[in-house]
Amino acid sequence: MYVIKSLPALPTLKNLSRYSAYAMALSVCAVISSSISASTASPTTDDLNQNLSSWQQIEAQGKNQDVYFHAWGGDPQINAYLQWAAEQVDDKYNINLVHVKLSDTSEAVSRVLAEKSANNNDEGSVDLIWINGANFATMSENSLLLKQWANKLPNFALTDPENNPAVNFDFGVPTNGMEAPWGQASLTFYYDSLSTGKPPTTLNELVHWTAQNPGRFSYPKPPDFLGMSFLKYALVMLHEKQDTNTGENTKAQLNLPATEQNSDMILAPLWTFLDDLHPTLWRKGEQFVQTGAHMRRLVDDTELSLAFSFSAPEIPAAVQRYDLPQSIRSYTMSDGSLSNTHFVAIPYNASHPQAAQLVANFLLSPEAQAKKQTPAIWGDKTVLVQSTLNPEQQSLFKTNKPHPSALPVDAIKHTVNEPHPSWVDAIMQGWQTRYGVSP
């Protein structure tokens, strides 16, 4: 943990008594004289703040603070990147950034909700949180987030928000300045090229592939995030196909909240698809893997030949540390890559909201975004728009030749957006009712 230095003394204004003397010499009226004399008094913090811009005030108030950043801690690469970020904000602002490692983001959501229930409205234990999707929707609906701060960060302009709606919406829900974009991710598939010559590149091809290669594919059991991502990808693709055949637009319902009236109709194609798919899966769909790491181990043990991740750089990193064979190759589905933007947010009761904003702004800087996008570091796609950067900043994003197992830079041809976050619960409840089995 970094040592927090003492807070430097605030600057003082120059003594203005000579103006008072000059006024007295000219026999200026008593009212003007008293006004000028009052200006010679020692300035208060409020006086100083009035002379500073809003961001300068945040910088002045945010330095020399702790920031407890609650973020998923399940990836060594991401953890190492956050350690680097901690060193940077320590150097820049004397901020002690503490990574509170989570196994699930809902842990932090529950903590903030409990603090609100206990009327702890200004000394919360969570200063910054890595979040998106259903967790953001929950915190927004319960007024658990600080509002209208993210869109005022100096580096937010580098995301070109007027022409880039992805930074202003989270799973279709307006962020209203409650989240700062941090990165972009897409569902990435990988396969063992020694056992599979031509992997499936569409949902329809996946059905045929699993029928021809029974037991060689599976997906994590809901509510695991990765498993839910696969089910959402399947649901979107099924409705795209159905809409093409019928000429209707039922897929549009996925952008709206799930209700009792529309859930049965929208989810019916998914259950039909899974009824056909499950018998061809690992252990005939009677058991499911628990996590992405479990699925990766089964590929390494040659039980599975095909798997997927929502963190593309996780795949070459696993190959390089010998958790996956050298024959692994990454790719994305050609019919559509489920993609989303992930964010950082500040709880409404954060103990150090100004310091958290300084951290969030640094995480949006070209320096931090370029390092995060480097495949050997994290490989997380930047949220910055290159046209907003100067040539020197653009040069930061140039990378060396990627590892053979890494996802090619131009692999993603067609992205599809996440459904409204309420569909997560609808899918999970329906899945448990139909397929819930012991691990």
Task: Name the descriptors.
single chain; about 450 residues; 3-stranded antiparallel β-sheet; 16 helices; about 40% helix; globular
Blueprint (SSEs and pairs):
Elements lengths: L16 H9 L4 H9 L6 H6 L3 H9 L3 E7 L3 H18 L2 E7 L3 H12 L10 E4 L2 H8 L27 E2 L2 E2 L4 E8 L1 E5 L10 H10 L12 H22 L13 H18 L14 H9 L5 E4 L4 H7 L7 E4 L5 E9 L7 H11 L2 H8 L17 H5 L19 E3 L4 H14 L4
Parallel strand pairs: 1-2, 1-3, 10-11
Antiparallel strand pairs: 3-10, 4-5, 6-10, 7-8, 7-9
Helix pairs in contact: 1-2, 4-13, 9-10
Brief synopsis:
This protein has about 450 residues and is of the alpha/beta class. The chain has helices at about 15-25, 30-40, 45-50, 55-60, 75-95, 105-115, 135-140, 205-210, 225-245, 260-275, 290-300, 315-320, 355-365, 365-375, 390-395, 420-435, and strands at about 65-70, 95-100, 130, 170, 175, 180-185, 190, 305-310, 330, 335-345, 415.
Describe the structure.
The chain is an alpha/beta fold and 439 residues long. It has helices at 17-25, 30-38, 45-50, 54-62, 76-93, 106-117, 134-141, 203-212, 225-246, 260-277, 292-300, 314-320, 353-363, 366-373, 391-395, 422-435, and strands spanning 66-72, 96-102, 128-131, 169-170, 173-174, 179-186, 188-192, 306-309, 328-331, 337-345, 415-417. Strand 4 (169-170) and strand 5 (173-174) form a beta hairpin. Helix 9 (225-246) crosses helix 10 (260-277). 41% of the residues are buried. Mean pLDDT is 87; it is low at 1-45.
